Amino acid sequence: MNQKYAGLSMYRNLLALFVTAILLGSCEARQKQAAESESLIHLKYDQQLSTSYPEVIANYQKLDSAWPEAQLLEAGLTDCGKPLHLFVISSDRQFDPMQIRKSGKRIVMINNGIHSGEPEGIEAGMLIADDILRNHDGMRKLLENTVVCIIPVYSVGGLLYQNRWHRTNQPEPLNPGYRGNAKNLDLNRDFVKLDTENARSFARLFRQWDPDIFLDTHTTNGSDHQYVITYLPAQHNSMPEKVGNYFSETMIPALYEKMRSTPYEMIPYAEYTNDSPEQGIENYVQTPRFSTGYTLLFHTFTQMIENHCYKPYVDRVKSIYLFIHKLIEFTEENGSRISEVRAESKEQVKSQKVYALDYLVDTTRYQMIEFKGFGRGTDKSPLTGEDRPVYDYSKPFTMLVPFYDHYEPAKTVTAPDYYILPQAWSEVVERLEINGIIMERLPKDTILTVEVYYIENLVWSPRPSNGHNFHESFTTRKEVQPIPYYAGDYLIRVNQETNYFIVNMLEPEGADSYFRWNFFDPCLEDREWFSPHPVLEDRIYKYLTENPEARKKLDDAIAAHPEISKNRTAQMYFVYTQCGLANKWVGRYPVARLKL
Predict the structure, then answer these.
(1) CATH code at 284?
(2) How far is 238 from 219, CA to CA, in rounded Å?
């Protein structure tokens, strides 16, 4: 064959292959485009059934395989040994949180199944992911400036244990999971103590992604009324000021208004005043043990949905689906302002000096809201025939009730320039590192004059709570002392955007401080003591002879309490404990405060 024609033939063959590849790609694209109108997952919530853990993960794997805009990531382990998953939906197919931040997009994070017996968020998460990806009703537009992150199941171990008799007051679904996790701990009490692998994985995940918006999905059996969905946003006065102001003045009212356009109007979570809705509803401060109390410390707009367990499961799933839709919609509409508020808040907190550690509701400030409830009455117990209290669903009512949503600081603290944490307290060091707290280490041994707390009048919880005996109440006394520190001890400067977390965790009187959760309990125990042996008495007598000030202090005590004048043991004890002979460690909180 002529060389010229041979080259032309090869060119034509290559061109044909190229065109074929384009046509095949176009065909594949058309097939994928057509799939946008078809759901890839099929649930049974309308049959009063919740989805099992293997089915949940299989559904997200289907979406991951079908859509390049979605990835199912593993974000660490849970206590049962299975991974904690994160499902990310990103229209530009970017799944690195740092790059997403650089692109200017906002991040919405949704946590489902923290209590696996409250599973409607698990169902709604799958539905919203499927609908966004297949562009149901044009929902892809929600991703123009927003990335959606869904934790499919947080308490994996709890969902693996489904049983009809879990959540005994909850008629539907017929197969709820268990409230505890694989370690039988309540994960919604573990966000600061980090006793579970679930919580450790979550903390790393949360700090890495730094979501602008956070939602935790729950179900409540604590009240009865006409509403399917109740709303529990973080209490705005307990949040960093700029975030709290925008939350209460703009975001929360907008979400209530958006839900009024759906079949599922919201009310505040019904924490009744004096157990009576007629006397009002109170929001409450969610402390850092809870998901919302933890996440607010990092300038995140954080909230919880509590669906009403006595309502049909199908309505509970639909209502939380619609709330998630409206939450993403609000974020998409207000992304620029959300970003500005968070940036301003982080910068402001770096120089903030005074922090609230406890709050009291302000009963003089409230707004009247509409409440749709049911009358109450009695019927006969089928077991004994005695009267039992019931809600009378034949007697619905609507009335105005006060809603209390303002809190004032009940206790404040002025933060030091630094906290000093001896390296001996490695469990606390580890938890601070997991939360991304910046710490410096002393380069050499030194003695520093610092302010320390002494713990007094301690009352422990009468029974264990999630594996701990919580410190319910105590008082503190301050002293300034020179204390030796060693190379490698930690300096924690209070000039970080994480200051809210630092102060709440390291001030012992913080509502969920590391001290309250027993991480410093050895400081309360005495390792040295005395017995009234003649050897000790002779040493104390010699000490009094050589130290006139101590002698006078004992004489003054005898004058004030004549009963000890003939009690050698009492005098020895007084000198040992009140004249500087006993060590100063007992009751001294190990984290010191350094002011420059």
Answers:
(1) 3.40.630.10
(2) 24
Structural domain containing residue 457: 415-596
400 within domain boundaries: no
**Strand-by-strand arrangement of the 70-77 sheet:** 70-77, 83-89, 146-151, 106-111, 213-220, 301-308, 229-233, 266-268
Sheet holding 367-380, edge to edge: 272-273, 276-282, 387-404, 367-380
Q: Is the same domain home to 336 and 430?
A: no
> Does any domain span residue 407?
no
Q: Which H helix or E strand runs over 398?
A: strand 387-404
The H or E element containing residue 45 is none
User: Taking Cα atoms as reference points, which of 424, 405, 318 lies closest to residue 366?
Assistant: 405
Helix (H) or strand (E) holding 525: none
Same domain, 180 and 80: yes
CB-based contact 438:496 (threshold 8 Å): yes
127 and 321 Cβ atoms separated by less than 8 Å:
yes
CB 237 within 8 A of CB 247: no
Considering the domain architecture, whether residues 515 and 588 belong to the same structural domain is answered as: yes
Tally of domains in the chain: 2
Q: Assess if residue 363 is contained within a domain.
A: no
Nearest C-alpha neighbor of 67 from the set 148, 123, 137: 148
* Same-domain pairing of 329 and 434: no
Q: Are residues 334 and 461 in the same domain?
A: no
For each of the chain's 596 residues, which pLDDT tens digit applies?
444 434 434 444 444 444 344 444 444 443 344 345 689 999 999 999 999 999 999 999 999 999 999 999 999 999 999 999 999 999 999 999 999 999 999 999 999 999 999 999 999 999 999 999 999 999 999 999 999 999 999 999 999 999 988 988 889 999 999 999 999 999 999 999 999 999 999 999 999 999 999 999 999 987 889 999 999 999 999 999 999 999 999 999 999 999 999 999 999 997 765 567 778 999 999 999 999 999 999 999 999 999 999 999 999 999 999 999 999 999 999 999 999 999 999 999 999 999 999 999 999 999 999 999 999 899 999 999 999 999 999 999 999 999 999 999 999 999 999 999 999 999 999 999 999 999 999 999 999 999 999 999 999 999 999 999 999 999 999 999 999 999 999 999 999 999 999 999 999 999 999 999 999 999 999 888 778 889 989 999 999 999 999 999 999 999 999 999 999 999 999 998 888 888 888 899 999 999 99
Which residues are paired to 397 by β-bridges? Answer: 373
- Rounded to whole angstroms, the Cα distance separating 129 from 123 reads 10
